[in-house]
Amino acid sequence: MRLQAEVLVLRGAIAESRHRVQCAVVDAAGSLLAASAESGSDAARVTSFRSAAKPFQLLPFVERGHADRLGCSDAELAIMAASHSGSRAHLALVRGLLERIGCTAGDLACGYHDPMDAESLTDVQRDPGAKSRLYNNCSGKHAGMLALAKAEGWPTAGYERREHPLQQLMLRTVAECCVVPAATIPLGVDGCSVPVFGLPLAAMALGYARLAAAMARGGEARAQALQRIGRAMVAEPVTVEGEGRLATDIMLAGRGRLLAKSGAEGLLLVAEPGTGRGIAIKCEDGAMRAVGPAAVELLLALGTLEPRDADSLNLHRRPPVHDAAGHPVGLLEARVSVVVSDDVRA
Amino acid sequence: MRLQAEVLVLRGAIAESRHRVQCAVVDAAGSLLAASAESGSDAARVTSFRSAAKPFQLLPFVERGHADRLGCSDAELAIMAASHSGSRAHLALVRGLLERIGCTAGDLACGYHDPMDAESLTDVQRDPGAKSRLYNNCSGKHAGMLALAKAEGWPTAGYERREHPLQQLMLRTVAECCVVPAATIPLGVDGCSVPVFGLPLAAMALGYARLAAAMARGGEARAQALQRIGRAMVAEPVTVEGEGRLATDIMLAGRGRLLAKSGAEGLLLVAEPGTGRGIAIKCEDGAMRAVGPAAVELLLALGTLEPRDADSLNLHRRPPVHDAAGHPVGLLEARVSVVVSDDVRA
Question: Any idea what DSSP says for residue A233?
C-alpha cells in the first residue's frame, strides 16, 4: 500500500505553506506493509529517533529487574518514557524518583527549557528562580538513566556522554529492538544532551511493531519488559505527554488499543497491539504543527483509528490558525491518499 | 537560470529534517530571470505576501502627499513598512506617530504578541500590565493605515476590514505594483487582522523589481514615492526589523545596495536597485529558520551578495542548533545549485 500525505496551511483563500509527510507501516516480522513514496520508498529515509526512542531507552532498567526492585508504579514507568509538559504532577513524579535513588535535579544532565504546561509556565515566569531541569520534557528519562546507573554501579557523573556504559547500552538496545546494526546508526546529541540515534523510518516502525506484539502477547524476558513499559504508557497517557498533546489524545481516543509517542522535529510513532503494526510518521521539515493533521488522517486511512475515535481529535486533525487578536483566520488540513498495490515501492 | 535550494537540519551525523525552498528572480520589465523548478517553474506558485507587502501598503500614504504633510522622517516611513522586534526604540516611533495623528494604541486593530526584542520581552514578563498592541510587529503599519484613514477623511473604526475603502485601496495598490489583476488575488486575514494577498512568487518579485528600479531612477509620481519608501527602509535597516534579524542584516551587509523585507511563513523579498532585479524566496513549509541559510546561499549564487558581504551573515547562513543546556549540537545548512539554461522552466 502506497501512501501520500501533505499538510496545507490554509489562510482564507490562500494555501500559504505546505508540509510533506513521510510514513512507514511495518509488522513485527519486519514486513513493510505501507509507506509513502515520492521517489522510491520513504521507508528507508534516515532521520533521528528523538523522544520516540524513550520506551527502548527505558527497556534495560525494566529488563534487568531494577524497576521491580525499586517498586516502580505505572506512572513512574510512564514518566521515564515521557516527553512531559512539565506540569506540577509530572514534576512530582520525577522528584519522587530522584529522591528514591538519592539524586537531585542538579544530577540531571538535561538543561532547562520553559514548560508547555500553562500553569507551570506562569509559575516560572512569576518566579524565575523556580526554573529547574525538572521542567525539561525529558527529565523523567534522565531520572530513569540515573536510576539505571545507580543500580548498575556505574558513575552517575557523565552518564549523558556517548562513551559512558549507560549510553553504549542505550545504543545497543535501540539497535536490537529496531533490528539495525549498531555500527550503522549515525549519532547526534539530543535536545536533552544525551546521544540520539539516526534510523530509517521503517526501522523505527519495526521497533514499535515489536513493542505492539509484546504488548499483546508478552513472551521471553525482553518481550515481558516491553509489555510492562507499553502497558504502563497506555495506562498513563497524560503522564507520557500532557493534556491536549497529540500522543496523549491519540492514546485516549484509542481507549487502550494504541500506544503513541512523539519525537521532536515532526515525528510520531504508534504501536497497535491488536494488529502488531508499528507506524512511523515524520514531517519532512520537522514542523510539529503538521504532525497532528497528518497523523489523524493517516491513522484513519490505515484503519488504526475509526471515524468515531477521531471526533475527540478534531483540534489535532484540523487545528485553527489565529491572528494575534485571537480571531480564527485559517486552519491546517492534511491531504492523504492511499494507493493499494502489491509493491509498496510502486 | 534554474535554481534548486533546500536546507538541511544537521544534528551530528544525522540529517534530521529538510526544508524545500522556492524562489523567483524577475526584472522590472517582468522577465523571469531565474526560478526554482521542481515540477514546472515554482515562479507561478501562489502564496501569501504577508509583511513583504508593507512597502506597497505604505505607498498610498506617501504617493498622496500625506507623508510630506505630516513631515515624516525616514525612520517613521521605515517603521510604517516594518516588521519590528518591539524594541523600546521601535515603540517610541509608533507612539510618536499615533500622537501626531491623535490616535492611541487602542485604535490599532492588531492584537498583542510577545516582542522579539529581549529587553522588551523582559519588560512585559515583569509587568504583564505593560502589554500593548504597540508591541505587535505590525504596529507601525497599522499606525500608517490610521494616518492614511485620517488624512483621507475615512472612518478609523473598522479600517482593518476588507470592505473598508482603505483596504480596498491596499488591494488595488498591491495589484498594480505586482501587475496582477486585483480580481484574481485570493485574500485571507493576516496575523495582524488586516487583509493579506495571495500572489505568485514571480509577481512578488516583480513588485520588488519595480521598487528596485524606482529606487535607482525615480520617475513619475508613483516611482518617486516608491523611491522615497525604499530609500527610507535602506537608510533604517534596524527600524525595518531589528538587531540580529535577517532582513536587517542583509541590508547592513549590502551597505545601501539592497533592500530586504521578510514575511511570515518563510518569505523573504529582496530589491536590488543596481540591477533592477526583484528576488522572492519562500520556504515551502513556512519555517523561518530555513530562510536565512537559503537566502544567503541564493543571494551569493545570484551575485546579489559578494563573498565578503556574507562574512557578517554567518549566523544566518549556518545557524547553530543548541540543546537545552546551550551546547551546540548541530546546524542548518543550505544546498543551492544553479543550472544555467535559456529556459528557466527547463
Answer: H
